[in-house]
Amino acid sequence: MPSTSVTKIVTTCVMLLFGVLMIVPFLWMISTSFKTPAEVFQFPIKWIPADFNWEHHIKVWTGKNSFTHYYLNSLKISLISVTGAVLLSSLAAYGFSRIEFKGRNAMFMVYLSMMMVPPQVLFVPKFIMFDWAGIYNTHWALILPGMFTIFGVFMMRQFFLTVPQEISEAAFIDGAGHFRIFFRLILPLAKPALATLAIIDFSWHWNDYENALVFLIDQDLFTVPLGLQNFILENTVDYNGMMAAATAGIIPMILVFLIGQKYIIQGVSSSAVKG
């Protein structure tokens, strides 16, 4: 057997092992959510419960603090933020990649360097600004900052650089302006990158705990991460309920990645071709 084939087989087995190790905690979480309290600490672990107990899942969705409200809040924040982030990132990336102006690359490097600033450093300035603007303790305190993503601009710029410049030049000759070229020519070609950015950005907003914790006070405004934290605090010994709540919180992310995994691969690979 050639050495390259042996290397591929070994590499595949190692990656499979790591994949299994990563998925085991999720399988245990889902399994525990259907068990009775007595089955949680059984050893060896019983992966498939004898009787599937739906009581804990029903409690999560119909209890005192139903996850339905948290889901609606998270969906509202995530979808609006993602829509704005995809549009604004694409517009900024088009300017940095397709429009020639003095100091363009230097400005982009300065803009990119802001990724090195820890987001926690901005909590106090954001709090002061949001309080002044009257959006503190509202969903807009999460939505508006979420529409601006440095990573999104970087990713879309890298993709736009792979689009042949001749396409824009031909459109200019036909009398098209930048906005027409952007919406009619560039964006349709960038569907994989746009889908990838949307999926990644959605995951960021759906799992955003820190910003929601700092800028939201009223429980009616809480998102899924804050709702999950509340559930854990109120049910400190209900391990089955905790796992049911965690399962409810992670389901949208699993669905999003299952639906869009091919776009993630295409978008990341195409965005990494040219720097």
TrEMBL record:
- Transmembrane intervals: 9-30, 77-96, 108-128, 140-160, 181-200, 241-260
Cite the entry's keywords alphabetically.
Cell membrane, Membrane, Transmembrane, Transmembrane helix, Transport
Which cellular compartments is it found in? Cell membrane
What's the protein's topology in the membrane? Multi-pass membrane protein
Q: Does the keyword Transmembrane helix apply?
A: yes
Which branch of life, at top level?
A: Bacteria
Q: Where is the ABC transmembrane type-1 domain?
A: 71-260
Its predominant location is membrane
Write out the similarity annotation: Belongs to the binding-protein-dependent transport system permease family.
**Record keyword RNA-binding present:** no
Q: Could you identify this protein by its name?
A: Carbohydrate ABC transporter permease
UniProt cross-references to InterPro entries, sorted A to Z: MetI-like, MetI-like_sf
Output the PROSITE patterns linked to this UniProt entry. Answer: ABC_TM1
SUPFAM superfamilies in alphabetical order:
MetI-like
